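idk why but the lab printer keeps eating my pages so im just putting this in chat instead. protein + magnesium ion:
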Amino acid sequence: STDTSGGKDKVNAGVIAIVDTAPIHLGKAKGFFDKHDIDLTITPVQGGAAAISGVVSNQFQFAFANVTSLLAAKEQGLDVKVVANGVSSTGTPGEDFSAVLVKADSPIQSAADLAGKKVSVNQLKNIGDTTIRATVRKAGGDPSGIQFVELPFPDAPAALQNGSVDAIWVVEPFVSQALSQGARAVAWNFAEATPNLTVAMYFTTGKADADLSGRFAKAINESLAYAAEHPDEVRETLKTYTKIAPDVIAKIKLPKWPAEINKESVTAIAEMAKNDGVLKSVPSLVE
Amino acid sequence: MRVVNALAVPLLLVGVWWLVSGGSFYLPSPGRVAAAFAETWFSERVLTDVLPSLARLAAGYTLAGVIGVGLGVAIGLSSGLRAAAEPVLEFFRAVPPPVLVPLIMLFAGIDNAMKVAVIVSGCVWPILLNTVEGVRAIDEVLADTCKLYGVRLRHLVLRSASPQIMAGLRQALSIGIILMVISEMFASSSGLGFTIVLFQRGFQIAEMWSGIVLLGLIGWGLSLVFRMVEKRVLAWYHRA
Amino acid sequence: MLELIDLTKTYQGRGRTVTALDRLSLQVDAGELVCVVGPSGCGKTTLLRCVAGLLPYEGQVRVAGRPVTGPPEHTAVVFQEYGRSLFPWLTVRQNVELPLKEKGLDRARRTELVTESLEAVGLAGAHDAHPWQLSGGMQQRVAIARAVAYEPSLLLMDEPFAAVDAQTRADLEDLILRLWQRLEMTVLFITHDIDEAVYLGRRVIVLSASPTTVLEDLKIDLPAERDQLTTRSLPRFAELRGHVYAQIQRTKQ
Amino acid sequence: MLELIDLTKTYQGRGRTVTALDRLSLQVDAGELVCVVGPSGCGKTTLLRCVAGLLPYEGQVRVAGRPVTGPPEHTAVVFQEYGRSLFPWLTVRQNVELPLKEKGLDRARRTELVTESLEAVGLAGAHDAHPWQLSGGMQQRVAIARAVAYEPSLLLMDEPFAAVDAQTRADLEDLILRLWQRLEMTVLFITHDIDEAVYLGRRVIVLSASPTTVLEDLKIDLPAERDQLTTRSLPRFAELRGHVYAQIQRTKQ
Amino acid sequence: MRSLYGVAGLLLLMEAVPRLGLVDERFLPPASEILRTLGGQLVTAGLWAALGETLLGWALGLGIAFCAAVAAGMVIGTVPGLRAATNSTVEFLRPIPSVALIPLATLLFGASLGSTLLLVVYASFWQVLIQVLYGVAAVDPVAVDTARSYGFSSWTRMRRLVWPSALPYIMTGLRLAAAVAFILAITAELVIGSPGLGLEIQIAQSSGAVAQVYALIVLAGLIGIAVNVGVRTLERRVLSWHQSVRREVAA
Ligand SMILES: Nc1ncnc2c1ncn2[C@@H]1O[C@H](COP(=O)(O)OP(=O)(O)OP(=O)(O)O)[C@@H](O)[C@H]1O
Ligand SMILES: Nc1ncnc2c1ncn2[C@@H]1O[C@H](COP(=O)(O)OP(=O)(O)OP(=O)(O)O)[C@@H](O)[C@H]1O
Ligand SMILES: [Mg+2]
Ligand SMILES: [Mg+2]
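predcted complex ->
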């Protein structure tokens, strides 16, 4: 519902409390949403599926979810409509916010060595395993034998440490944390899977008011642009809605926040997912 | 007559479900769920997902029973031990299993041992609490009789607390199934609970509901077995 | 065998404090059969439970020279609440057999004792029944059979024949007398039946009303060999009986 | 008032089938006081529970002309298991008062009845105790007080004085006689004490051993006004007593 | 007094395990550090607000579930035939994880108190219900006969006989349900994202703030201890007549 109060539309956005979503928090603080007559409330959600459910059930007007989750929703006939870019890979291995890590003394030296190993991802049949398979394939390995297990990001470093898995996929702040504690990166799956990968997007439902969606998109895009230009303010913002330790915040690699959605990368992800059997078709997500 | 009696309420509920389910994405009609059920579970999934889950459930449940009853008897018999142990137990009891899992993973790794440990960590409470209370509630005259004749603990304590222990075991059965699902939300790549979660995240809602229905059926089936056992164990109690 | 010196027992409950026994002293020699009578609620059961080591107390209680802190060895008790003292999940036979197992007797001896004692209390046909399938009197007899089969050296009985008919009662009285003579055990026997007390006891202890002490310690100077017909028709029997009755009535002022 | 025709009760349990009552017939007029005696385990309690509407049975049981299918109205029962029939979570006073509340009496009348009846059974000082703080005999007297305070038109008592001393027993016997005359109720009184049966009863029913029928229905032709001393010393009393005793012994072959 | 030994022992263990290197300190900080972090958290207003939210959902949900389950249990347990009719349904519904109801909850209520309540009530209802059913079966048959012969109405029988007899079982049910309700309140926040302690835990987890996660877990455990003390106190009052309590009071 878009209740108007004081001329402004009340909007509730479901957003995961991670580094990726810093722009919306920063943009809210900077008044970009007020400028577009949007009275924004940011509700933290636990993951992409919860965000999508929330939008479909009208609890949120907008939300943030990764490409694969959105593709899956679309394929199952859920009425989701992308309104703006969310977060993108930096495209530079070694400088990205997502990596596959191994122990310092691990025999695994490159992405190709991951073949046949046990690798943790936060969710199976999602963007993690899809991009890792692509990276391994590009590095000349055979991804079909990789044994993926589900482990939430926070629990993955411990599992790597006590040898429960051979490699872990994590995103910031866990990448920096683990690297500083002696882990070693063997693959930068977002950067290496496909060029300039669009990882996640803001979306709404097809039934949403077009004018409001437009204004929200504008506000988001301004926020993305501002965040891209002011990394220091982004790091400050992180202290407000996450509990990441300040010394870690100073170290983490920030993602890219372009205003443009890289449509080719979305299609590429969809193709890969289809090849891996995660999706049955290639739904069109972004017109 | 008994069959009619047992089926009336379930049929009524399915009817209600049918009526309210019209057109909702998250609540598909019973027909669609039934179709999804046949498609999803009459396949090799039974071998790869359902049976391993049930095996872990059996292991966890048995372990919880042994620990719960053993510890419960000890705690129930000694008020000193109870005073010391209760706060610690209550502490762990109040910690939600999902946040306890990472801790368990630190000690038990991420394989079957962890999942069984998660099941135990939830199942043990109703058994433990009921055993403690059952042991505390032993008839005084009976307890005195035992003291006099030096009759071993087993006879008095376990049997006379058995109605309450059975209540705990009954509770634990369904909690075990729930924890089987929760344990498979972590560090999994197969299992009944894992499959349900996967369906949920993939927005395959009819399939997800068919998994929930399967959980219910498993619970119901196990409770039938349980009742048969209980009928024997508590025959003296129900004066049958 | 049994020595009570200044035994005092006070029950403290919410708002209700009862001094059930007040500096009660009593001695029972090994192999004696002593009957205890007294008004209802005076503290007979309390006395018995102190001796059985089931209640904390003040003063001294000694069994076979040793102070009682827990249940003394080789002791059997028939509780007033006989129904609650049987294990409902065991059959009659198992109920009687359990303490014998605990005592470490072998199977043959156990079977013999169980069969004998159940026969003696008239329950030969009820071996496989559960306690709750029995009448009140039958349950009480199971409890008696259990105590008897145990062959204790100290037997404590709390109104053990309260729930059986007159004829059975007479039979059971004679059973106890027989066993007492054969096993040379010490028996403390609480009863409300004055005739019974005089018939069975070598001594009858009359307790006063609460706070309870020993009102009279009466030696029963009847012939050692007792018999339901002849003993009860002795003039001395009537005399003693009348004496005890008068004492009990005195407690009720 | 009470009509039993061909009453048969068979208990069926695992492996144990007992015919407790076998085509038993009996009639009790309104306002009669009938005592029932019989060997232990013969089926007295079973009989009483059938009349109280607590057991399914074969044959016919009618109370006040109506067939018994559930507990008949205005009926009070004192159970043989008196201890378990008291509610442990209520005090003595509350236990006695509860049925009166249920009967719809006002507070003043209730207090009066409770105080009176507890006084009558000698428990004036135990109003606020809980049942488990009482001795066996005291618990039994609470159950009696509860039945008495209820002022039933049919009073069923199952060995109600088994746990009290001789003197208290005599007092309670006279209490029942007084109430019976004042309230004109019908009383069915089960006892093992033959003296008691003859002293109280206008008729004494002697039951046979299992399978149980009425062995003898004995009219007690003693003067209507009974008195512990005079009645019990009548030669006719001794005669009747001896007769009943002989009958009971006959059942034990 | 004795209860302090248990807690002290636990703290000692939690301090020793990481200090001795049995597990990596980074993944399980020693007790002293957890407590220090907890102390730091306790002075922030945000934590108390979150705690308030959680406890509100907990108390409301537990209250609703308890009353509903006791009422349903007494009726099902005492009306003949009803038990057989409802048995299969109860056993079917009971093992369905509350967590699986999350889509339904969000659909009906969104990320609001309603969702939390739905999950909390659903989970704790069964705990109490099963205990009540067993408790109702624990009534002494002689006491039942007594009540019947004095012509007690069904209501009086329920209130004066069945309820007190079942009370020991029900108290256990309350203790079980109290913990389950608390767990579900937190889990609901964790998963649905309604505000509260669970959300705090989730944010701390995804921020890699291990000590904070454990501090919040310890807080949850402490609340569990407090709730148990409350229920035990209640039990000593309402079950003072029962063997289990009176034996201890006497001893
Ligand atoms: N619930 C029951 N199940 C099976 N058999 C029973 C049950 N209750 C009683 N009986 C049997 O029925 C018979 C009569 O029992 P009842 O209790 O009526 O005897 P009674 O005359 O009251 O004896 P007593 O004087 O010892 O109390 C006994 O043989 C007993 O074993
Ligand atoms: N557990 C208890 N708590 C409090 N008071 C008790 C307890 N047990 C007994 N009493 C009290 O102690 C006194 C003596 O009780 P006791 O049972 O020893 O009497 P008794 O002589 O065996 O009586 P009876 O012949 O009626 O069985 C009574 O006043 C009783 O109320
Ligand atoms: Mg006594
Ligand atoms: Mg009887």
